[in-house]
Amino acid sequence: MSSKSAKAPANLLDELQTTLAHGTVARRVEALRRVTDLFLNHAVDYSDDQIALFDDVFQCLMLHIETSAKALLATRLAPVDTAPPMTIRALAFDDIIEVAGPVLTQSSRLDDEALIEAARNKSQAHLLAISNRKQLSGAVTDVLVLRGNDEVVQNTVDNPGAEFTERGFTRLVNRAENDDDLATCVGLRPTIPRYLYLKLLAKASDAVRERLESANPRQAEQVSGAVKEATRRARAARSAVTEQTEIAHALVKSLFADGRLDEFQVASFAESGKFDETNASIAAMANVPVTVAENMMIETHTEGVMILAKVAGLSWSTVKAIINLRDDLSAGEPTDLQACKATYERLRPSTAQQVLRFHRMQQQQQDAPAA
Asked: Rounded to whole angstroms, how far apart are CA atoms 288 and 307?
């Protein structure tokens, strides 16, 4: 880049100071156009110091221009990877969506921290703009799912570049209970944890199941329309076994086979927020199929968890960790741990074994027609 190009922003800043002090609105808009042209013509060549100088120029101008000119600036700078960062941030946090929208949707200058701040504090229109980004991390979608209206949430789920945390998926499943379109889209996300897929399918309408079958014709037999009960359909849906779930089950199977699966390991899984590992561990220690434990674990009440834990011989401290895991993932009201502790201490192992045998028999009866 020539020395003339390098000095141009500084010379232009002097001219801008005169324009801002004495110029008309038309002169200010023309000055903005010239600065933007100058920047875009050499954007890939400017050093960090020169970009910082442009940042000062743009921010100085933005205090004295009307919305339409600011919106045009946002549109022109949004796709530029080297756009002045403070200018981009100022545009992104503008209350006017015509100004903020292009930057929130396109600019790579906005990191997750900035996007999360905007998502927590700005309007639904701002959230919708963020949901259109090519890539969205789980940290960002957590806020979009929590704060967004139906349009924002649906748009986020429809975005193929969006990632979701387990907490995010939990909120989506809860929101989708009375929304067939959302339920279908959430059910088709390839990374949805299996237990949440089962919960979604158990509550889904026939229309949702038909859509899932149409979208996955190879899996139609696993989500069979011939099965009448929602819980039976959910239990038969092997399509929700993700690679992550399979890895978790294989790990637990290996630990159990080697005699290394103990209560300490179960508590460690639960405290680390690992549902699949925790569930598979309890199933192994209670000597029941993973599917039986899974369905008892995702029940609304905690009785299923306590039955499994008592049969497995787990102490209350480990049961508490498992209940806390469920509460964290469900994003609902916290469980009354004192009442659960009293119930668990009264529960006899023999009683727990009887109830567990009932659950196993019930599952066998339900699985038989599907087989």
From this structure: 12
The C-alpha atoms of residue 323 and residue 332 are separated, in whole angstroms, by 12
Query: Which regions of the chain does DSSP assign to beta strands (E)?
Result: none
Rounded Cα distance, 219 and 260, in Å: 36
- Neighbouring residues of 368: CB distance < 8 A, sequence distance ≥ 6: none
Asked if residue 309 lies in contact with residue 318, where contact means CB atoms within 8 angstroms, the answer is yes
- Is residue 182 in some structural domain? no
Q: b/e per residue, 198-236, with b = 16+ CB within 10 A?
A: bbbbbbbeeebbebbbeeeeeebebbbeebeeebbbbbb
pTM: 0.64
- Predicted confidence (pLDDT) at residue 297 exceeds the cutoff of 60: yes
Helical (H) or strand (E) element with 160: none
pLDDT cut 90: percent of the chain above it: 41
Task: Return the CA Rg of the chain.
Answer: 28
For the chain, the domain total comes to 2
Picking from 91, 107, 142, the residue at the C-terminal end of a domain is 91
| Mean of pLDDT values over 238-244 | 60
> Which residue, of 91, 109, 134, is where some domain finishes?
91
CB atoms within 10 A of CB 23: 16
On whether residue 216 sits in a domain, the answer given is no
pLDDT band at 359 (very low <50, low <70, confident <90, very high): confident
Range of the domain at 247: 243-370
Q: What is the pLDDT of residues 303-334, one digit of tens each?
A: 888 889 999 999 999 999 999 888 877 656 78
Contacts with 179 (C-beta within 8 Å, 6 or more apart), sequence order: 150
